[in-house]
Amino acid sequence: MLQGHRDGHGFLIPDDGSADVYLSSQETHAVMHGDRLRVRVMRFDKRGRPEGKVLEILERKKRPLIGRLLLESGIWLVAPEDRRMGQDILIPKNGIANATAGQVVAVELTEPPSLYSQPVGRVVEVLGEIDDPGMEIEIAVRKYDVPHRFSPETLAQSAKLPEKLRAVDLKNRIDLRDVPLVTIDGEDARDFDDAVYCEPFKQGRGKKAFDGWRLLVAIADVSHYVKPGEPLDADAYERATSVYFPRRVIPMLPEKLSNGLCSLNPYEDRLSMVCDMLVSADGEVSAYQFYPAVISSHARFTYNEVAAILGNTHGPEAAKRRELVPHLLHLHEVYRALLSERGRRGAIDFETTETQIVCDDNGRIEKIVPRTRNDAHRLIEEAMLAANVCAADFIHTNKHHALFRVHEGPTPEKRQTLQNYLRSLGISLGISDDPVPREFQQLAAATKDRPDAQQIHQMLLRSMQQAIYTGTNSGHFGLAYPAYTHFTSPIRRYPDLLVHRVIKALLAAKRYTLDPAKMNVPQAPKRPGRAAPPNPADARNEAERWEVVGAHCSANERRADEASRDVEAWLKCRYMRDHLGEEFAGTVSAVTSFGLFVQLDALYVEGLVHITELGGEYYRFDEVRQELRGERTGIRYATGARVQVQVSRVDLDGRRIDFRLVREADEARAPSRSATGKPPARKRAPKTAVQALDEVRQADRDVKKSRKAAVAAQHPVKAAQQAAKRAAGKAAKKAVAKPAPRKRR
Predict the structure, then answer these.
(1) How far is 364 from 362, CA to CA, in rounded Å?
(2) CA angle in degrees (0–180, nearest 5) for 300-302-306
(3) Predicted pLDDT of residue 6
(4) Interatomic CA distance for residues 330 and 198, integer angstroms
(5) Distance from C-alpha of 637 to C-alpha of 596, rounded to nearest angstrom
(6) Keyword Nuclease: yes or no (predicted)?
(7) Relative orientation angle of helices 325-345 and 303-311, to the nearest 10 degrees
(8) Minimal CB count within 10 Å: which of 137, 272, 292, 672?
(9) pLDDT of 501-530, one tens digit each?
(10) What are phi and psi of 656, to 5 degrees?
(11) Separation of alpha carbons 375 and 109, rounded Å
């Protein structure tokens, strides 16, 4: 698969995972980003990287391209929004439909590019003006091939679903409508897929006595409505996840289910799957059981509301919910027990700063604020983790196929890179050859008070592998669980829906199998750098089918993340256009060979200070220390350095913000620190890179003058001769520069 570059060249991403093959701009003139090619490696560059020649075009990208319609010198063309396409698309006059110049359109290719001609296409959809509210989302869903329209069959099936529960729906279910279960979510949440309840629980006497809590986690029973092989299931599998954008969600299920029948709205009867747990005083889940139930949420709480009640049980928030306050206190008690067990288990818990984009009515960024996590967030998180672990244990104990959420530790290469980085910072704690989660948690705790703690924790996160869905249980490294799965969000994640089906089958003493005939749904197109999307119908056995489904869900999860990041980047670029020329203080968040990424303190926006903006000297990139070092001045720019920057350029199409270095807000050189994180005493005032460079140049001039003076003192005759030569040279230059006099006639 060809992965294009905005500069015109490209890279072939082999299907077998081998090294990428570089293709020059001459080789990519007749192809486009996303095409499948067959190439031949012709040579290797100085670094051993292969360079190739295109032999055959195996498959052209068939999906419509998104771009802006332009009229230049009487010629209609579309400039692709994805710069990796490399070429503009010519549009004949009869192919522009009803679009006008400047609008965003979807284009279907009618003639592919060749060695001597540009691609030709026709407009198949007009999205609107580039400044229309929500246009960035319309572009992203098409750019990343996110399914955003339900099939007519799915909409028809959804319309036939009942508005309320029927008597037949309550059959063989435990009635928990009198139990004061409550939902706790964010202020902007629309679908509520989990409700919780806790009460003290004591049982038995003597050594077998149990003293702890009974914790109920009720999850919306989506599997009751979404059956295998039906249109609802086909669309849900194709999407695999809901995609969240600022002010808009593209759901996995139609709204009648996601916000209606399956949403645990307050004071409404809802079907659910319940994980009923006994949690001991030391935080261990001593027993659990699963069963289908019917519940009625007694309240819809927000995180901030619960945090206020827990902080002041006699405050106004508590007064409004007086009858539910004792249950919230019990939830907080079981949370503290689960949290203590998490610490003993050695699970990793990084305190990273997450941000929330606040938009106005037109969909533009109003402000970006840090998202603070309080005890209410952590309370729900621990309750959901406990239910997920019970689900994984239940499936694993019964030796049934399912999708596990697997997170593996660092590879040997990443472990060594992390070890070198920590050593370069003078951190005595390290990572063993066979690391365990506790080592990472100890590192996080030991460095949490350092000025560069955020960057260290980011390096710890990057050293670990990405979590995936797979049919093979390999444990969860970050959470330190031997088995883990996703059970708590079937409204927005397809793996959770499958886990519910497996648990229901086991409760009925049956086995749940993936029917390949019922999962032969349209597959997403192959994406650059990724393997072809698998089809469960092509799997040879049950275990392989689960692996195929896991790979599909993992790929779509990454696709959703990429689309969300693209929209956020567009919004931030649009936001920063209003701040061009302004100066801000920031922190170097990452260092690369081509410059520094700086995150602004006030706006929580990241941009690039290109290496050419650092002064007129050569900077060498130290990959181990993650820093740029000036060869002449020795000035270092490392992660965590404080700088003052000016917003110099915003590229909306390229999703890029450029900064210019104004001055260092603190020493650019990252000071060496001890293991305690205390920097050494500062001996001199901070100095900018430009000032340091001027001082070096002045020192060079002073040295040259002193050398000349020393030579003149030791060899006066020789010095006089050299001075005479210099004077003669200057006189000759003046004579050449002076024009010859004109001759009079």
Answers:
(1) 6
(2) 100
(3) 77
(4) 6
(5) 8
(6) yes
(7) 100
(8) 672
(9) 999 999 999 999 988 776 655 454 444 444
(10) -135, 135
(11) 53
Calpha distance 355→373 (Å, rounded): 11
Is pTM beyond 0.85? Reply is: no
Return the bridge partners of 619, or none: 630
Mean predicted lDDT score pLDDT of the chain: 85
153: Cβ contacts below 8 Å, ≥ 6 apart: 231
8 Å CB contact between 415 and 463: yes
The pLDDT tens digits for 714-733 are 555 556 666 666 666 655 55
Answer for the pair 453, 219: CB distance below 8 angstroms, yes or no: no
Q: How many helices (H) and strands (E) does the chain have?
A: 15, 31
Lowest mean pLDDT among 345-354, 410-419, 609-618: 345-354
pLDDT at 639: 81
- Higher-pLDDT residue of 485 and 627 is 485
d(CA 580, CA 647): 5
Q: Give residue for tokens 């239910």.
A: 387
Residues in the chain: 745
| Beta bridge mates, 69 | 78
* Cβ partners under 8 Å of residue 476, min gap 6: 405, 406, 407, 467, 483, 484
Look at residue 66 and tell me whether its pLDDT is greater than 70: yes
Place of tokens 């989990």: 194
3-state secondary structure of 144: coil
Given pLDDT bands bounded at 50, 70 and 90, which one contains residue 622?
confident
Q: d(Cα 266, Cα 176) in Å, to the nearest integer? A: 14
Tell me the C-alpha distance between 357 and 573, whole Å. 13
Pairwise pLDDT comparison (334 vs 635), residue with the higher score = 334
The reported pLDDT for the residue numbered 170 is 94
Q: Is 184 exposed, middle or buried (0-12, 13-18, 19+ CB in 10 A)?
A: buried
Query: What is the rounded distance in angstroms from the CA atom of residue 242 to the CA atom of residue 558?
Result: 12
Q: Residue 370: beta bridge partners?
A: 355
What does the block give as tokens for 455? Answer: 């960057």
Instruction: Count Cβ atoms within 10 A of the Cβ of residue 278 and give its class: 0-12 exposed, 13-18 middle, 19 or more buried.
Output: middle
- Cβ 486 vs Cβ 553: under 8 Å: no
Phi, psi for 561 (deg, rounded to 5)? -65, -40
User: Are the beta carbons of 15 and 6 closer than 8 angstroms?
Assistant: no
Structure token pair of residue 388: 């997920």
pLDDT digits (tens, 9 = 90+) for 223-243: 999 999 899 999 999 999 999
554: which 2 tokens?
């993992």
Q: Answer with the residue of higher pLDDT: 78 or 357.
A: 78
Q: Output the six-digit token pair for 85.
A: 């396409």
What HEC string does 244-279 produce?
EECCEEECCCCHHHHHHHCCCCECCEEEEEEEEEEE
Q: Spell out where 410-479 has E strands.
A: 468-470
Residue range 370-385, pLDDT digits in tens: 888 889 999 999 999 9
- Collect all residues with Cβ–Cβ distance below 8 Å to 614 and sequence separation of at least 6: 595, 596, 628, 630, 637, 661, 689
Query: Do residues 273 and 215 lie in contact, with contact meaning Cβ atoms separated by under 8 Å?
Result: no
Report the amino acid identity of residue 674: S
Four-point Cα dihedral 13, 14, 17, 21, nearest 10:
-60
In this prediction, residue 698 has a pLDDT band, given cuts at 50, 70 and 90, of low
